[in-house]
Every structure is written in structure tokens, then in C-alpha cells.
Amino acid sequence: MDTLLQDARTAARSLLQSPCFSITVVVTLAIAIGANTLVFSVVDGVLLGRLPFGAADRLVAITSTSERAGEGSTVVSAPDFTDWRTQVHRLDGLAAYALETANLTEASGPARVSAADVSANWFTLLGVPMQLGRGFATGEDAMTAPRVVIVSDAFWRSRLGADRSVTGRVIQLDGRPYTVIGVAPPRFTFPGRPDVWLPLVIPPELLAHRGDHFLAVIGRVASGATFAGARDELVTVTERLRSQYMDADAPWHYSLVPLGDQMVKDARTALLVLFAAVGCVLLIACANVANLVLVRTSGRASELGVRMALGAPRGRIVRQLVTESLLLALAGAAGGVALAVGGIHLLVAIRPGNLPRLDDVSLSWRVLLFTSVIATSAGVFFGLAPALAASAPDIIQSLKSGTRGLGHRRTGRMRSVLVVAENALAVILLVGAGLLTRSFLRLVTVDPGFRAEEVVRLSVSLPDNGYATWAKIAGLTQGVVGRLERLPGTAAAAAGYGVPFGQEGISQTVFTVAGRPPDPPEHRMSAILQIVTPDFFRTLRIPLRKGRAFTGGDRAGGHLVVVVNEALVRKYFPGEDPAGHSIAIPWGTAAGRDTVMGGEIIGVVGDTRTSDLTTPPDPVVYSAFDQQPANPITFIVRSAADPSTVLAAAKQAVAEADPLLPVYDARPFAASVLESASRPQLYAGVVGGFAVVALVLAVLGIYGVVAYSVRERRHELGIRMALGAREGQVIGLVVAQGVRLAAIGLAIGFSIALLGGRLLSSMLFGLSPEDLTTYEIVSVALMAVAAVASWVPARRAAAIDPVSAMRPE
């Protein structure tokens, strides 16, 4: 122990005598280790960490698959949910939820809050105790039960003043009183980060319609049962129900997945790619630091030679030098942890790309252990090779012969190998960043089918108790649109339900065509339903292809009409004119009204993307808002005026119509379109940042090796110049060395990138992992910067005086 302490004190004194070197190494390692700690914190919290629920390993989610919903959907019908509760015995305590929003009325003005309607057993199933008060009791999700609510910790603190006697207090949601019975714990935000949890009340009419899919269901595998057994029983029960209710359930298939997997399925591949990328940055940083240590150790040849000549064993020299490296690594780790703490707070605050489970990200013991391991490994990695080279037996001969440095040829080869490794790792990151960036650029240039520029949007949700009739909904909508049309600078204004790229309201529904025989259940026609006012197409500049758009004459009580898009025509009316056909859309159960929407097709408009730029346009049916109003409502305004000014005036127009209506999702329309690409943008930006850091470190490595080589080859270069070598030849000779190292790294990096490119395929849009253009750009960029990095020492080499270079030292 005394020897170790002595080594540590000696190492610390030695490092303090080289402050520039020490600071450079510590800062480099702090950035690399900090980035790794931050990314691993996210991976640990999102992918590896246990769900903060009781018996989390037995919690499962029910997934559904259909031709309409695609793979991995989580929506089921209310009748299926109630049947599973009684017939699937290997799943204990099934619970359902549906996400919505609600209008909060308070003294400071109306506000929009997020809500989760959950089964009464929700908190019991998840094993989550209340921070204050109690959870829902059995029966509180019945139609006749008193209205109660559980609030989140954030809502309790921001809206209710963190009042510890809050239970029993009444708040107004959608114009109705709700009694607060509990406050959820601080880190409980499932599902969907709601402000409030409400009992899930299922009206009796919904239990008669098995085709109405709007619930998500979770459950717990019963004690003594297995996951596979519960899944098989669910499938068996579902098959029995399908045969009993063929018309409704035939297109749907159900299965189980662990709840944790379902929550993070969209982010898993991307996080693992980011983790691999930041690992490459750490390896590059270690290689760069190893080069710095080699240079420093080379300059200590005399010191180390004297110590060995005085009898210091080789093991002691190695231990001393490795101790110095470990001290640097630990200092870098301390700085890295500090950077990671700040990064975690920033991530949780801004929630980039809507990553799931960010509330579970923290500096856990696993993260600290990971940081300790990589710091120690890094210290050994960049310290051991220089230490072994420095303690080689030929150091004594090196001192006797008066040569510079310690085994400079061996050291030069080692530095060259490290630089090649740096370049190979940098190439991998550059290829990944290039692919993600080019994919993102392709994504944001996708034509959504409308012109979002100079358009703003804002939404309202009308409470049922104040807007129970269609006439009241239509009256408010017409009044607000009229006010918006009169705003200075307004070119057009409209309103709609299911407006593209909104926060809610986009729904897919089945429909039938009059005069056609019924389709089999697995091939039923379906489309996105949007209910819009007459100027909707003009406001968004959606082109009219055939027929006509809605007019002011398409009102309630008149002939029902619809407009469809080209995608619907291609899919369901191939080779024929859809004009004159009538379609019917069952709409009563979802909206709580006994009605069938639809009407005669009077026009065809261009295709639009609805919620995702990566997904091809869906079939869409547009219904006239004045004939069949819906809720929630999004207002859109096209104006060349400043968007903030237009939004302020639009909010005032809503307040004039109903001062109790909160406005939400108020922003430029283009921003909502770009938000759909926020996660690809995040991944491209993060990997791109890592790639830039890697490229800078690789360039510094090339510069260092070439500069070191020029210093060691000074005598040789002097002889070449004395024998007639021209300046350009000397520069070319030196630059070729740096370019050669980069070329070797390029070849190795490309080989690895081609093998690992498949990992990125699910993150790319309209681009192959073997995209030739990306590889060409990376090749040109790396070779160019390698040439520039080599040119500086090459100019210094060309300026060598042959006489002084050949003079004996």
C-alpha cells in the first residue's frame, strides 16, 4: 500500500509539472467519458432499468394487428376487453386506458390538461401507492359513480400549490366538478405523462360494438402461470370470440409483449446505435491520448533511462507510468460525471424526440459503475502501451548512442497504428452520421400534399355539457372562422376535425359503398376521416383534381356530400370515376350519437400525409363540417403576417366566442409537420456531433504523427534536399504519409461500416445503408482533411536547412 501511495504522489507531481499536457488529456477524456456516461444513463433508464412498478417482470401489454392498424398497434375494443377480463384466467387484473385531454377551469383562466382514463384497478395492478390520498376504488369507473380524479405530482405542485390537504378539493374539468382523491408519486407518469387520471367509464352502447377499437390494455401474468401460457390462452379466447362475432373481429389478431418492451420498442435500435457511436468516440479519444502520452514519454527518455540505470526494475517503471494514466483517467471521469449530470437534467427538461421513460433516467449505481469501469479501462488502454515502450531494455542503448527519444521507430509505428485506428472509427461514425443526415434531409423534403408555409393552427375541445348538440358546435365553429377571416392579412381561414399532423382527432374508420355487396371482414374498406369547413382545401392549398369542393350550401339538412382523395380512388375505385357513388361511415358509437356519416362523392383532391412524413398517403374521406360537426376542432389561418401576431389574434377570436375554452396546439403549421421528424433529426444531430468530434481527433492524430515523423526524419530530409530534392517533392513525401494513414483507416472503416450498416436500416428513410453518395462524401472529406493536417508539418519540413539538419548533434 505504501508503494502504491508513493507511486500516486510521484505521478501527481509529475503531472503537475506538465499542466498543458494534463489539462488537454483530462478535458479530452471528460468529454468522451461524459458523453458515454450520459448515453448509458439513457440506455440504462430506458432499456435496461426495471419498470418502477410492482411485479414489473410480470406486466404485459396486449398488442393488436390488422390490415388497417398495422403491426404492433395497441388498440382493442371495449367488448373484447370485458370478455378477456372474465375468460383469460392466466392474466390477472386486466386494465384498460385511453388518452385524452380536458379543459381545466380555474380562476387564472382556462387551461388544457392531458388526461388518462383508466380502469379502477389501474394503480393496484401497477402496484403504485399514492403520495397523498388513495387510488380508485372498485366501482368508481361505473356510469353512476361520483366523479373523482387523481392528479400527478407536477399538477399538484403547479396547479394546486402543493397543498397537502388537497384530498376532497373540487376541480372543474370540461365544465364538470371532480373531487381530488389522491396525488400520484413524483416519478409516476404512465401512461403518456398525464396531468390527471380519471376513471374509465365505458357507456353501455360501446359494449355492443366490437369493431370500435380505442382502448389500450395491460395486464399481469397470474402467479403460477407463464408468459407463453398466458399468450396462448389469450389467442385461444380471441379465436373463439372471432368465430362468435365474425363480422366485427375477423381482421384483428392479438398477442402479448412485456410491458417494458412495448413502451420502448420505437427507441431501442436508435439508442443502441447512439451507444455504439459514443463508444467509438471514447476509443478515438483514448487513442488520441495514447499518442500524447507516447510523445510525452518519448521526451522523458533520459529520466527513465537514468532510473533504470540506477536499478529501477521494469515493472516499477511500468507501474509508475500506468499510475499517471489512471490518475488522468479518474480526473477525466470526475469531469465526465459532472457533464453527464447536467446533460441528464437537460434531457429530462426538453425531452428530445419524445423518448420514452426519460423520467427514469438518472445517475444510478449501474451508471457510476459503468463510468468507473470505462475510466479504469481507458487509463490502462492509453497508458500501458507507452509504459511498455518506455521501459524497453534498449532505452539504455538509446541513451548511449545519443539518439533522440526512446526507440523512436517503435514509437512511430505504435503512433501510426493508433492513428489508423482513430481514422477507422471516425469513418464509421462519419458514415453513420452521413446516412442519418441524408435520410433526414430526404424526409423533410417530402411533399406533405399541402402548403404549410404562412399557415398557423390552434385547437379547442368543446365540453359535452356546453356543446351537447351539433347546432351549438357548428355555431361556435362558424363564429370563430368568421372572426378569423376578418383578421388583417388573412388570405383564408377554415376549421376541421382530424386536421393533419395534429395532437388528436386523426382516426381511421371503415366505410361501405352503396350498391356494392358487403366486403368480407378482413377486406373491409377503411379511410382516415376528416371533417372540414368549405375553405379547408383553399387554406392548405390542397389541389382539387376532379369535381368540386365543399361550399356554403353544403349545410345541415341538405344533401349529404363527401370529398375523397386520390389514394382512396386508386385503392377502392380503380379505373372508374367515383363521382356519384355514396359512402356510409358508422360514426354513432365513437361520438356517442346514433348516426351514420358519409354522403355522395362530389370531388377528388390531392393526397396528403396525415401524421407521419415516412408513411405514404392514406385513403381519406372528407365530410362537410356544417353537415356533420365533430369535436375537437382545429382552426387554421393562412396569412402573410407574423405568425405570433396571427396566433395572438386567433386566440382572442376564440376567447370572444367562448372565454372558458382553452386553446392548445397553437403554433405555425410548418412546425407541426417538422415535429413529426424530430426524432430522426435528434439522431442525425447527435451522431453527427459525435462524428465531428471523432474527425477532429483523427485529424489531430494525423497531424501529430506526421509532425513527429518530420522531427525524427530531419536528418534524412536534409540529405534529400542536399541531393537536389525540390520543395514540392519534400512536401509531397510528407503529405503522402498522412494521406496513406487516412487511406488505411478509410478502408478498414468502410469494411466495418458496410457490415454494421444494417443496424441503421430501420432508422433510414428512402436510403440504403450502402448509399454510394454517402461513402463518396466521407472519402473525399477524410482525405481532404488528412491532406490539410499533413500539409502544415510538410511546409515545416520543406523549410529545413540541409546544412544544419546534417550537422552532427
Explain what the structure shows.
The chain has 25 helices and 23 strands. It is of the alpha+beta class and 809 residues long. Helices cover 50% and strands 18% of the residues. Strands 4-5-10-7-9-8 form a six-stranded mixed beta barrel.
Short description:
The protein has 809 residues and is α+β, with helices and mostly antiparallel strands. It is 50% helix and 18% strand. A hairpin with a 5-residue loop joins strand 4 and strand 5.
The span between the termini is: 44 Å
DSSP summary: helix tally: 25
Q: Percent of residues in helical segments?
A: 40-55%
Overall pLDDT score: 83
**Unreliable spans:** 401-407, 589-594
**Global structural class:** alpha+beta
CA gyration radius, whole angstroms: 34 Å
The overall strand count is 23
| Spatial strand arrangement across the major sheet | 4-5-10-7-9-8
Portion in beta strands: 15-25%
Largest sheet descriptor: 6 strands, mixed, barrel
Q: What sort of overall outline do the alpha carbons produce when their principal axes are compared?
A: globular
Oligomer: single chain
Relevant terms:
18% strand, 809 residues, globular, six-stranded mixed barrel, single chain, six-stranded mixed beta barrel, alpha+beta
